[in-house]
Amino acid sequence: MFRFLGKLIKRTPKECLQHDHTKFPNILANEYCQSCDQSLCYMCGNDHMSQHHPVKINHHSYANMNLQNNEDLTEKDKLNLETLRAFNTGSLIQLDINKLKCICGKPADENTAICAACGSATCSQKCHQELVHQDKCKFHHNFTEKANVVSLRSILLKNAYFLFDKGYAQGTVFSRTSQNFISAFLTTQRSSIFLQRGFRQYGNPEIQTLNAMDIVNGADLDKEVHLMRVCQCKCTHCKNLGYHPMHVCQLVCKSRDLYIYRSYAQENPVEKQQTCGCQCKFCSSGLTVLQHKKIDCCLKCEFRQKVDF
After folding, report:
1. What is the pLDDT of residue 291?
2. Residue 286 phi/psi, 5° resolution?
3. Any residues with CB less than 8 A from the CB of 90 and at least 6 apart, and which?
4. Could you give the CA distance from residue 94 to residue 118 in angstroms, rounded to a whole number?
5. How many CB atoms are located within 10 Å of the residue 55 CB?
6. What letter would DSSP give residue 277?
7. Cβ(83)–Cβ(210) under 8 Å?
8. Which residue, among 213, 182, 183, 187, has the nearest Cα to 96 in the 3D structure?
9. What number of CA atoms fall less than 13 Å from residue 15's CA on the CB side?
10. Does the reported pTM lie above 0.85?
């Protein structure tokens, strides 16, 4: 009995000691960096992962690829499920503001905001707190009981309207959180925005938000270069890392190299057979034959010159 209580107390996350507490108090160290052997909060965990450290993420931020009732789905539910899974894996999503409603049923206006943690749109902090009380937004699990009301309700439509009216171009970022959460961008229309989700997912969007979402066709490159999306690879290296963003594994992930190789071959059917004339260190090293085709070095040389990983 006492041993069990001792283990339970030992496992209970304590306040993080790795950052300045005067600026960011009451944040729990509920994550763990395997390379540094340190307990961390989600903020410090982000810093470690930016340096390719393997960090064990708190389970509350794991991606959930299912709707609440995943059985006997209607055609509309199946469409929403497809959209949800695309959104949670980092695909570019267009949000139609004219269709968007708060969980209370109120249509979206300039006071509407989207939580960068759970992805739900609400008309007020009060409505968002309902999601917190129901544990549909799980971001609050990062904080101690002493913390005041915490929220990442930071994707503000009024900011999108302001920038659009000032003439800012499509693709302008107006969200206030990192790519680890949800990024928001302007489109060519005032009545819509782009959203792209990272690996930190503290709940799923409510149905009122999902109904206003559409997958952007032809945006495969936008997804591929979004390295803070959750990794879906099943290779041995990625399995050993556990839940992680593509940024942590992209240097050694086997499926990523295969994707790039196939993409290059499909998009450059003539060029891939041409003789490579590059004099870079790799192409002249002898690691591949000195006179080789471009397809033979695309992972090490030419592709890396074209795309900033």
Report:
1. 59
2. 90, -5
3. 196, 197, 198, 223, 226, 228, 229, 230, 246
4. 17
5. 26
6. -
7. yes
8. 213
9. 13
10. no
